[in-house]
Amino acid sequence: GGSASGAVVFGHGLGDTPEGWRWQCAAWAHELPWVRFVLPPAPVRPVTLNGGYPMPAWYDIQGLGDRLQEPAEGAEDSREVWSQAVEAEASRVGGRDRVVLGGFSQGGAMALYTALRSDMLPFVAGVVCMSGYLPNQAALAATLTPERRPLALRELPVLLCHGRRDAMVAVDAARRTRDAAP
């Protein structure tokens, strides 16, 4: 709403749309009336995992194997969309330190990726990643130089949640994401 003093930019998962999460964000907003929830839509793009057919996706997923090492083609373009949403919300609520990035599955992966790949650290107040992981770790390693790594990973609050029976994203991906932090 207009009186929000904080914001959550929340991303949906692969093949979903903001509409799929509107009800949940409305429930959260009811409990947190000072928080504005923003749900950007992923672009429709061909997804290798889907036989190359187009679907809403923040980036390409090649297979069900090691997603942490995949190049996540398209993630940089999506990061720009997320960064613009952060800046727009920051101007509404009084700063990036009042904005949290969150998401489910591929949206959670983009929340982590966007926060850690930013030129400005810490970029946001925190990250909530549900059933996600950190994609394209090779690109992230290049960005997080030894000087930036402690700032990015120790001063950025991250809530990483993952079910043990997730059929789409193995819990091991979340564990490996957690273990990547110093």
Short key terms for the protein model shown above:
Rossmann fold; single chain; two-stranded antiparallel sheet; alpha/beta; Phospholipase/carboxylesterase/thioesterase domain-containing protein; carboxylic ester hydrolase activity; LYPA1-2/EST-like; globular; 6 helices; 182 residues
Textual characterization of the structure:
With 182 residues, the chain is of the alpha/beta class. It has a single domain (6-179), classed as Alpha/Beta hydrolase fold, catalytic domain (Rossmann fold). Helix content is 37%, strand content 17%. It contains 6 helices and 7 strands, in the order E-H-E-E-E-H-E-H-E-H-H-E-H. It has helices spanning 19-31, 75-93, 106-117, 137-143, 148-154, 171-179; strands at residues 6-11, 35-38, 44-46, 54-56, 99-104, 126-130, 158-161. The strands form 2 sheets. It has a 5-stranded parallel sheet with strand order 2-1-5-6-7, with helices on both faces. A two-stranded antiparallel ribbon has the order 3-4. Helix 2 (75-93) packs across helix 3 (106-117).
Short recap of the structure:
The chain has helices at residues 19-31, 75-93, 106-117, 137-143, 148-154, 171-179, and strands at residues 6-11, 35-38, 44-46, 54-56, 99-104, 126-130, 158-161. The chain is of the alpha/beta class and 182 residues long.
**What is the N-to-C order of secondary-structure elements (H for helix, E for strand)?**
EHEEEHEHEHHEH
Outline type: globular
The residue fraction in helices comes out at: 25-40%
Number of strands: 7
Main pleated-sheet profile: 5 strands, parallel
Give the overall pLDDT as a whole number.
86
Strand order of the biggest β-sheet: 2-1-5-6-7
CATH topology grouping: Rossmann fold
Radius of gyration: 15 Å
The CATH class is: Alpha Beta
